[in-house]
Design a protein that fits this description.
The complex is a heterotrimer of chains A (about 270), B (about 240) and C (about 220). With about 270 residues, chain A is mainly α. Chain A has helices at about 10-30, 50-70, 75-110, 115-135, 140-175, 190-240. Chain A is globular, with a radius of gyration of 24 Å. Chain B contains seven helices and ten strands. Chain B has helices spanning about 45-50, 95-105, 110-120, 125, 135-150, 165-180, 190-200; strands at about 5-15, 15-25, 30-35, 55-65, 65, 80, 155, 185-190, 200-205, 210. Chain B is globular. Chain C has one domain (about 1-220). Chain C contains eight helices and no strands. Chain C has helices spanning about 1-20, 20-40, 45-75, 80-85, 90-120, 130-155, 160-185, 195-220. The radius of gyration of chain C is 18 Å and the shape is globular. The chains are: A mainly alpha (about 270), B alpha/beta (about 240), C mainly alpha (about 220). The interface between A and C is large, with 36 and 36 residues.
Chain lengths: ~270, ~240, ~220
């Protein structure tokens, strides 16, 4: 059955993603040799850095979209949708980064977590953007929610350089090891890693396209309800008797748009 | 002379719900206009829209020369809204509350004392915490803020609610004084007799809409956009219309 | 803007004076948190002494959350938020006023907590200049960030649970930097505490600016 959020672009991207990922799996999983020191776990180098990179890309896009939304000249709901969608995809990649980082740490140093600068920073970022996503789900009117979330996204983002400085100073205090440091790669391993960046980029784009399409559909659902609601509201005046009785009930017309309360809470 | 309030087919949304679905309204200075209608019809919403709290998304809406569809914030300092809630801080005293509200709106603290006296908030009451007061007394505190600020447009939502007979008379006197002083007054009230006695004109609000009231009863639908000449202050109260 | 800030700060502090919520509720809570740390760490004196800066700042963060919640609970009652919007006051001024009132209360709590830390954890207060300056700058940052997120969450029904989730990750660098600065001031680390102070100053500057610019937009949104 045809997916409602699929589009020609997403199908092409999806196919490309599938092909490149398969290539990475084959090259990374079998063809390229294991590292002398780290053993088979070095294959995580084909996953972890790409995940981390696109996690930051996702958050960056979210901040850019928020900025574009708040700027009066470019204000448009599509930037708000981009901000929300890319933050969500970014969070998914962030979790992936943390999991792969943790596995790698376990393999390298025997611990599931290390207070390495990058891991800590990523964990903080995850917490910050989870808060942002929670804010997206709790708003009322679509426009005020969009503005509020845009400001929040920018605030989340400006804390990134501070976090980065802080965590890197902090970890140098303890002379921790950074994941991925000291790995010399070349030849096939390098090419596979580069290919992994391409394939994860395609996966990211595919997910983003679908999520954007979903947001657009949700927005359209909301706004189409308004026109109908206006007509119903006006009709509400007409069907009543000329002298309104004192016991007339609350504002909800016969069949209010689903999920609307007088405060304008709409479930996304 | 420019009307203080001029609405044409104004639409306002709260979320997806259209609290105002096409309002036509004209109010001049020194006029006292009564909004009447059932619960939920949109009277409070019209008042809030005039105060610049509720955003008008379609139609024309101008209050005191400020276009509400463009920037509702500019009009706020120039109007006085007496809502269901008093915008008061429970933990502060009466005088502190009024002084804060007046100074916040750019008024002078000197006007606070006389306003409190006028509303009968003297002696022990002045220092009492607002949280300890009765509903009627809180209403009088909120009124004192309006009296001290002297805005050009008074927006009163159920102003008589909670007041005893003596203070209701006092309120009516205040309203007349304000209008005589040049302010426009719009009030929403269920108090039929009392409100009719003080108002110059009545506008009926139903289903989020209101039509311009005229001298003679007219049968019109709510999407009529007739211009109506400004009505004199001593207008007979029989001239109010229903939305069909 | 500054006049409005002074007006709002004065109002908030006057409310606090009359209601005494911070002195009667948050202060005991702060001391209680320190006590609980002592219990949780099993009276391990050397450990508590070592951990004191971090524990102190965690306690401050928790108090900050309460102070912010309280500051906006004031405005939630009885249409006060509408009152603020209707007054036409400069929104940057309202932000500064509210943040200043929160900061003043926090500083008071920090004095109490520092006293508690000395008594309960046996902390030895050396290099007071760094300690005090760090505390002031960190407090400014906490108050600014807290006020900004406070207004964001204020209109929402889920504000009590949302606010901690929003604020805590964002002020984590303050916790980090302030703790490190204090550790240096207390002689527990040889790291120069003043560079952490620089970081704290950056944080405070960024969030104060963001607050002055963005508070108005956020106050408007239901």
């Amino acid at each position: 059955m045809r997916s409602p959020t699929a589009s020609r672009a997403s199908r092409i991207v999806g196919l490309a993603a599938l092909v490149t990922t398969a290539a990475v799996v084959v090259l990374g999983g079998w063809v390229s040799p294991p590292d002398e020191v780290q053993g088979p776990l070095v294959r995580l180098i084909y996953v972890h850095p790409a995940l981390a990179t696109y996690c930051y890309v996702g958050f960056g896009l979210s901040a850019l979209g928020s900025l574009a939304y708040l700027w009066p000249r470019t204000r448009s709901r599509r930037w708000d949708r981009l901000a929300g969608a890319s933050a969500e995809v970014g969070v998914v990649f962030c979790v992936g980064t943390l999991i792969t980082g943790s596995i790698w740490g376990r393999a390298s140093w025997g611990v599931w977590w290390t207070w390495d600068a990058r891991l800590t920073l990523t964990a903080l970022l995850l917490a910050v953007f989870l808060g942002y996503l929670a804010l997206r789900r709790s708003g009322g009117e679509p426009d005020s929610r969009a503005k509020r979330c845009a400001v929040a996204a920018l605030l989340c983002f400006i804390v990134v350089p501070i976090d980065h400085e802080a965590t890197s100073w902090w970890s140098t205090l303890h002379q921790g090891d950074t994941i991925g440091k000291g790995i010399l790669i070349h030849g096939l391993q390098l090419e596979t890693m580069l290919l992994s960046f391409v394939s994860f980029g395609l996966i990211f784009t595919w997910m983003l396209l679908h999520r954007l399409a979903l947001e657009t559909l949700e927005d359209r659902f909301e706004s189409e309800g308004v026109v109908a609601a206006i007509a119903e509201r006006r009709a509400e005046g007409r069907v009543k008797a000329p002298v309104p009785p004192a016991s007339v009930s609350a504002p909800a017309p016969a069949s209010p748009p689903a999920g609307t309360s007088y405060r304008g809470e709409v479930k996304p | 002379m420019d009307p203080v309030i001029r609405f044409r087919s104004a639409v306002a949304l709260v979320g997806r719900f259209p609290v105002l679905a096409g309002v036509d309204l004209d109010v001049d200075s020194s006029e006292i206009v009564l909004l009447q209608g059932a619960n939920g019809a949109g009277k409070t919403s019209i008042l809030r829209a005039c105060a610049g709290l509720l955003r008008v998304v379609a139609g024309d809406a101008t209050v005191l020369g400020c276009d509400l569809t463009v920037d509702p914030r500019r009009v706020r300092r120039r109007v006085g809204l007496l809502g269901h809630h008093g915008a008061l801080y429970d933990d502060l005293g009466v005088e502190d509350n009024v002084r804060f509200a007046v100074r916040a709106a750019g008024g002078s603290a000197k006007a606070v004392g006389p306003a409190l006296d006028r509303l009968g908030l003297t002696g022990r009451l002045r220092a009492a915490s607002v949280g300890q007061l009765s509903a009627g007394q809180r209403r009088r505190v909120a009124l004192a803020v309006l009296v001290a600020r002297r805005p050009a447009l008074w927006l009163l939502d159920e102003p008589h609610a909670g007041l005893d007979a003596e203070h209701r008379d006092e309120l009516d006197a205040l309203i007349r004084e304000a209008a005589a002083g040049g302010a426009a007054v719009v009030l929403a009230s269920h108090e039929h007799d009392r409100a009719h006695a003080v108002a110059d004109r009545v506008v009926t609000v139903t289903g989020g809409t209101a039509a311009l009231s005229t001298a003679a009863p007219i049968t019109g639908s709510s999407d009529r956009r007739d211009e109506v000449p400004a009505t004199p202050a001593s207008f007979p109260l029989s001239g109010h219309t229903h939305v069909a | 803007m500054w006049r409005d800030a002074a007006l709002v700060a004065g109002k908030d502090l006057r409310v606090e004076l009359r209601s005494r919520v911070t002195t009667n509720q948050v202060a005991p809570y702060a001391v209680l948190v320190l006590l609980l740390f002592g219990i949780a760490f099993d009276q391990d004196r050397p450990l508590l002494q070592q951990a004191a800066p971090g524990l102190f700042w965690i306690a401050v963060l928790l108090c900050c959350l309460l102070a912010v919640q309280r500051s906006f609970a004031l405005e939630a009652g009885d249409g006060a938020r509408d009152g603020l919007r209707l007054s036409g006051m400069d929104t940057g001024g309202i932000f500064v006023g509210k943040a200043a009132a929160i900061a003043v209360q926090l500083v008071g709590l920090e004095v109490l907590l520092a006293f508690g830390a000395v008594v309960l954890f046996g902390t030895d207060l050396r290099d007071p200049a760094l300690l005090v300056v760090t505390a002031l700058v960190a407090t400014a940052g906490l108050a600014a960030a807290g006020t900004l997120y406070g207004v964001m969450a204020a209109g929402l029904r889920v504000r009590e649970t949302l606010l901690p989730l929003l604020v805590m990750p964002v002020v984590a660098p303050v916790l980090l930097a302030a703790t490190q600065a204090w550790r240096s001031a207390l002689g527990q680390s040889t790291d120069g505490g003043w560079r952490w102070l620089g970081l704290l100053a950056c944080f405070a500057a960024i969030y104060s600016t963001a607050g002055v610019l963005g508070f108005g937009t956020l106050l408007e949104e239901v």
